[in-house]
Design goal:
The structure holds two protein chains of two kinds.
Chain A (H helix, E strand, L loop, with lengths): L2 H29 L7 H6 L8 H9 L3 H7 L2 H22 L3 H13 L2 H21 L2
Helix pairs in contact in A: 1-5, 3-4, 3-5
Chain B lengths: L2 H11 L5 H13 L5 H5 L6 H11 L4 H5 L3 H9 L1 H4 L1 H26 L1
Helix pairs in contact in B: 1-2, 4-8
Chain lengths: 136, 112
C-alpha cells in the first residue's frame, strides 16, 4: 500500500472514530440507550470479538480502566491508535517523512511471524469466548 | 524467455491480475532470464474470487484482509467490527482489486 493512501485511510478512520464516539457518548448520556451497530450481533445474536469496544473506550474516557478491561481489552488498542495516529500523520505530512509508514510495514512483518501470529489469534479467540460468556 | 512459455503463464494466471497490468507482465516476462521460470511458474497467487467469498462470509472479522496479507488493515477491520459495518460493505467491491494488487506486488518482487 502506498504511503499517502495509508495516511488518508487512517485519518478517515480516526475522524469517523471520533464522530462515532461523540455520537455514542451523546446517546448514552442523554438518551440512556446502549450503543450497538454490530452486524454480527444484529444478525446472529452472538457478540463479535470487538463488541463492547465502544463502551471500553468510553470507560477509558471516564477514567474507569478496570471497566474498560471488562468491556473489551481491545478498547485500549483503539484508544492508543485514536490518540497517537492523527499527530503522527500530521508530523509525517508536515516534515515529509515516512516514519509511520515504515513503522506500519515493520509491524506487519513482525505480526506475520508464526510465533507472534498464533498466540495473537488465540488471544482474539479467547477474547471472543469471553465476550460471548459476558453476553455483551 | 520463450514467448510460448510466457503465453502459457499469462493464460493460466491472467485472472489473478488487473487487465491493464497483463501487457506489462508479458513484456517483462519475455525480457527476463530463463532461470527465473522455475520460481515464476510456482509462485503462489491468491484467487480474487476466493477473497470475495471470504469477505462476504467473515469479512467483518477482517479475515479477508488477513488472507491477502494485509495484516494492518485486517486488524483495523477486526477491532472495529468491520469498520462499523461500513468498511465490511465497501470491501465487497475493493477486495478483488486489492487481491490483484497484492499478486502484482508478489510477481514484481520476482521480476524486477
Amino acid at each position: 500500500m502506498a504511503r499517502n493512501k495509508l495516511y488518508l485511510l487512517l485519518f478517515t478512520a480516526c475522524t469517523a472514530g471520533y464522530f462515532w464516539l461523540f455520537f455514542t457518548y451523546y446517546r448514552v448520556v442523554t438518551l440512556a440507550r446502549e450503543p450497538g451497530v454490530c452486524l454480527i450481533k444484529r444478525v446472529t445474536g452472538i457478540p463479535c470479538p470487538s463488541c463492547g469496544s465502544t463502551r471500553s473506550v468510553l470507560s477509558v474516557l471516564n477514567g474507569d480502566l478496570a471497566g474498560a478491561l471488562y468491556w473489551n481489552p481491545l478498547g485500549f488498542i483503539i484508544v492508543i491508535v485514536l490518540l497517537v495516529s492523527p499527530f503522527w500523520i500530521l508530523y509525517d505530512v508536515l516534515s515529509h517523512r515516512n516514519t509511520l509508514f515504515n513503522f506500519y510495514n515493520q509491524t506487519e512483518l513482525f505480526l506475520k511471524r508464526k510465533w507472534i501470529a498464533i498466540p495473537a489469534i488465540l488471544l482474539v479467540l479467547l477474547n471472543w469466548i469471553w465476550n460471548i460468556y459476558k453476553g455483551l | 524467455m520463450e514467448a510460448q512459455k510466457v503465453d502459457m503463464f499469462i493464460m493460466s494466471n491472467g485472472k489473478y491480475f488487473e487487465s491493464y497490468q497483463i501487457n506489462g507482465i508479458r513484456e517483462r516476462l519475455i525480457a527476463v532470464d530463463d532461470s527465473k521460470w522455475a520460481m515464476i511458474s510456482t509462485v503462489q497467487l491468491k484467487d480474487p474470487t476466493v477473497s470475495l467469498i471470504v469477505s462476504i462470509l467473515v469479512g467483518s472479522l477482517g479475515i479477508d484482509r488477513f488472507l491477502i496479507g494485509d495484516i494492518g488493515m485486517g486488524i483495523g477491520k477486526l477491532i472495529t467490527c468491520g469498520g462499523l459495518g461500513i468498511w465490511y460493505l465497501v470491501d465487497f467491491f475493493l477486495i478483488m482489486g486489492a487481491t490483484r494488487e497484492k499478486n502484482m506486488q508478489k510477481i514484481q518482487q520476482l521480476l524486477y
